[in-house]
Design goal:
173 residues, mainly alpha, two-stranded parallel ribbon, two-stranded antiparallel ribbon, disordered C terminus
Length: 173
């Protein structure tokens, strides 16, 4: 087909190595998003804590209003980010939903630190179990590796700070 600047296709895959070479050959750019690091996890925890716990507590709805136990939210988010090493953004988002559901399901409608940390413990346990099911090869592929330019490896944290995500240059493949 002919090149066009009026159309863009975005492909996403958890297993890009399984794509046929003919597909890879037609890709202009490849960007790999690695698992979030400590700072990214903390930002995600804060985002989802606000979205699923704090905003429903403040705004409420016509139904039951969510209440939040008094606590140091900043420290809580930092603690959770430290405990969720290796978890994806999706897993962290699901934690936010679990906190909200736990609050609404409780008798008094209160989201407590204890309940939040129990949900975190459950999620970390489930994540560990899922990771144990992966083969050694899949675990190696899931490790965070970043290259800004071919031949000059950078630490993932440096790439994240510079580009906002972890990337690998696939031009030599």
């Amino acid at each position: 087909g002919d090149q066009s600047d009026k159309f863009m296709m975005v492909l996403a895959s958890n297993t890009p190595e399984q794509l046929d070479w003919a597909i890879n050959d037609r890709l202009d750019e490849v960007v790999e998003f690695a698992l979030p690091g400590q700072d990214e996890r903390e930002r995600l925890v804060r985002l989802y804590f606000e979205k699923y716990v704090l905003l429903p507590a403040v705004e409420g709805s016509r139904g039951r209003r969510l209440k939040v136990e008094e606590m140091d939210y900043g420290q809580l988010c930092s603690d959770i980010a430290s405990r969720t090493d290796g978890m994806s953004g999706r897993e962290i988002a699901k934690l936010g939903v679990a906190w909200q559901a736990g609050g609404y399901a409780s008798e008094d409608g209160v989201v407590s630190r204890k309940m939040i940390m129990e949900k975190v413990d459950d999620a970390v346990s489930q994540h560990s179990k899922k990771m144990s099911w992966l083969s050694d090869e899949e675990n190696r592929e899931n490790r965070q590796i970043a290259y800004h330019k071919p031949g000059s490896p950078m630490k993932p944290s440096e790439v994240v700070a510079q580009m906002g995500f972890t990337a690998r240059d696939f031009t030599k493949f």
